Amino acid sequence: MRKAKRPARDGRGVSGHRNAPQPQPRAPLLDRAALALYPPAWRARYRQEALDLLCDLGGGAASAASLAWRAVPAWLRPPRHLHGQAGRMRASLATALVAWSVLAGLGLVFDQLTQQQPVLPPGHAVIGWSYAIFDVAFAVSGLILAAGALPLWLLMLRRARRQRSGRDTVYLLMPALAPAGFLACLVILARFGRHPHGVGPWWFAALTLAGFAAAAAAAAGPALALRRLRPRGPAVRLAAITSAAAVATMLLASAASLVASAGLSLWARGFAAYHQAGPITIYLALVTAAGAVAAISTGRGARAALARPRGL
Amino acid sequence: MAEELDRWADPPLLVLASLADEPRHGYAIIQDVAQTMGVHLSAGTLYAVISRLEARGLIEPMAPTGRRRPYRITATGAEELAQQTERMRQVAHVACARLSARPGMAGA
Lengths: 312, 108
What we know:
The structure holds 2 protein chains of 2 kinds.
Chain A: H1 29-36, H2 40-57, H3 61-76, H4 85-113, H5 125-162, H6 166-192, E1 194-195, E2 198-199, H7 201-229, H8 234-267, H9 277-306
Antiparallel strand pairs in A: 1-2
Helix pairs in contact in A: 1-2, 1-3, 4-7, 4-8, 4-9, 5-6, 5-7, 5-8, 6-7, 8-9
Chain B: H1 2-7, H2 10-18, H3 26-37, H4 43-55, E1 59-61, E2 71-73, H5 75-101
Helix pairs in contact in B: 2-3
């Protein structure tokens, strides 16, 4: 192989070794933002190196963009050496939990805008069946997730109490605290935000945003506790497998909601605003994105859970 | 493994080739590949390749020198690189032989 003709800049040799460490300037926001897109395990391993490289390359939007673009495969196919088997399950569980919560939140919005309306549109068999499938799959998904995650939740709660970690205890209680906060919002709305024909549109938008914030907080709490407490063993494996089943049933519920939405736009034209393409397009995009993330994460977690144990 | 390496296209081979003679860190790999092989690797491509090669045990990180962490090729990586370059050499040999047999390309 032909050697490089000139040494690298900054006084380094061909191999680029520096003679002495130099103080590290703060990396530009763009570079840090690009690296923030990577999975936590990737960042823990490569972030500083990549920041140093960007600094050497002189930064710039192109370098940051190349790193940002490569964050997608780092999420879809995370390098296995960065995680042990338990670590892969934990990372997948955390991601799947957040994605499942988004899907559940979208499902609740769908339910509120369709089945919970005071006046129902003229029915069609497809819409009716879709509603029924949605209701059953939504409930079953929640039950599977709760049943599968309960042993892991109890394990982490015991560990948090043993370590006297108030922060982890709060994280683990977020699935109860966040909905309680949301219910408090509902009470405030019921008192001050009444509209002659129900809830006003602005209040409904605010309520929806508050609901998604509560769902995100409820999912983020256990996800952070998973990262900090690093549980392992059969409880993690059970949660990884059951979360895949919960996501599969939630995807069935989401598919049923999409069929019902399409049915409403076809067979209930002129009733309410079901014929408008905008809302259903946004709903479809959000369901597809969250569903893809949930399916990929739980698939990865279930594969790790079903693989032969290595160093659990 | 050879088929898998093929699917990664060129950058992994370029990085392995860059590390074949001595350890290098990221910036030095980019410089070396650009100067000796005429290919510019972006930062995103480089770290995607490094993480994959490291996961497959073809390269390994060394202790950091200053703020930078050099990488070196492993014995498995060197063997893989040798197999790939042999395949490339065979393909190049056949291609050159057949091109030179074409009318008007005797000098190819």
